[in-house]
Design brief:
The chain has 363 residues and is α+β, with helices and mostly antiparallel strands. It folds into 2 domains: 3-93; 109-347, BirA Bifunctional Protein, domain 2 (2-Layer Sandwich), CATH 3.30.930.10. 41% of the residues lie in helices and 19% in strands. It has 12 helices and 10 strands. The strands form 2 sheets. Strands 1, 4, 5, 6, 7, 8, 9 and 10 form an 8-stranded mixed β-sheet that branches. Strands 2-3 form a two-stranded antiparallel ribbon. The longest helix has 41 residues, at 53-93. The termini are far apart.
């Protein structure tokens, strides 16, 4: 075999090994075996010095050409393997940017049903011309009981129904308000009639079961002027119930009752259907007690510095938590205060969907 044939066979063999190299480590082994200090091509180049000038003139260019060609093939294969390795790494570490992003705080946050219902009530009565009044949660005995015509010895004044604070240095005990009615007294003392307010807020009583909690929410309404009457009271309440429960018609039934601060006093039932799993307001032949109301007692007017021979008015009160239960199908009031994220995710409302009469209260 001639030297030319040997060089060509070596070229073919090395080229095949380069092509068969599966990774960069295998390719480096081929490089060392061919071009390293003890490599096959390096050994041939080292033998040029022993050749006669005529042979060296022929073999020199052939061996250098072989060396350069093999080096070029190794460089090309090296680039291909690096590209393939990069592609494999990208494939294993890739992030699918087409997946949806995690929702932001505005999308994930939820408004508590009590806050939602307060906003709904406010939207309805604001449209009727009522303003919002507020007062302290810690009240004096006078504002919580005496000014509202509660007689001495009334059961509400007992420890089993009311949260009392320890007596102060004068022997007086403040209370956690049992209703938002003290806001009515403070308003009548400071605002000259006509008065048209609602007073939503937290209230406190010693009670706890499926439909009662020690702390709950209540809204009361008050109208004081020179000509108000029960007919207006009934219209206000029926218009509120229609708007709140988002029905075209409601039936109401006013039953005689007793409240110390109103005379006459009434409890109001609303027509409903109890045949299914939920109570449906505005249809059916059943009745559901929903609130208390009445004409403001003359003694209450006198306690606020108003002449009952000149001024008269009406008032009502209802539980906000109970309204939420009726409208949105919740069956246990205690869950309102458990701080269970799952419950809030299910029953809560999106923060930017503010209730309006024209846009829909619960949309």
């Amino acid at each position: 075999m001639t030297d030319h044939s040997k060089i060509e066979d070596l070229r073919t063999a090395i080229s095949a090994e380069i092509a068969d190299a599966a990774d960069l480590a295998a390719l480096d082994q081929v490089r060392v075996a061919a071009l390293g200090k003890k490599g096959s091509i390096s050994a041939l180049l080292a033998g040029l010095g022993k050749m006669i000038p005529e042979e060296r003139q022929i073999m020199g260019p052939l061996l250098n050409g072989l060396k350069n060609q093999v080096a070029a093939e190794i460089d090309a294969r090296n680039a291909d393997l690096k590209q393939a390795a990069l592609a494999a790494r990208l494939a294993s570490e890739k992030v699918d940017v087409t997946l949806p992003l995690r929702k932001g705080p505005v999308a994930r946050g939820r408004i508590h049903p009590v806050s939602q219902v307060m906003d709904e009530i406010t939207a309805i009565f604001s449209d009727m011309g009522f303003t919002i009044a507020e007062g302290p949660d810690i009240e004096t005995d006078y504002y919580n009981f005496t000014a509202l015509n509660f007689p001495e010895g009334h059961p509400a004044r007992e420890m089993h129904d009311t949260f009392f604070f320890p007596p102060d240095e004068d022997g007086n005990r403040k209370v956690l308000r049992t209703h938002t009615s003290p806001v009515q007294i403070r308003t009548m003392e400071s605002v000259e009639p006509p008065i048209r307010i609602i007073a939503p807020g937290r209230t406190y009583r010693c009670d706890s079961d499926q439909t009662h909690t020690p702390m709950f929410h209540q809204v009361e309404g008050l109208v004081i002027d020179k000509s108000s009457h029960i007919g207006q009271l009934r219209w206000v309440l029926e218009e509120f119930l229609k708007a709140f429960f988002e029905v075209d018609q409601v039936k109401t039934r006013f039953r005689p009752h007793f409240f110390p601060f109103t005379e006459p006093s009434m409890e109001v039932d609303v027509g409903c259907d109890r045949s299914g799993d939920s109570v449906k307001i505005g249809e059916g032949e059943d009745w559901l007690e929903i609130l208390g109301c009445g004409m403001v007692h003359p003694n209450v007017l006198r306690n606020c510095g108003l002449d009952p021979d000149v001024y008269q008015g009406f008032a009502w009160g209802m539980g906000i938590d109970r309204l939420a239960m009726l409208k949105y199908g919740m069956n246990d009031l205690r869950a309102f205060f458990d701080a269970d994220r799952r419950w809030l995710d299910h029953y809560g409302f999106r923060p930017l969907d503010l209730p309006t009469l024209f846009g829909g209260l619960s949309s």
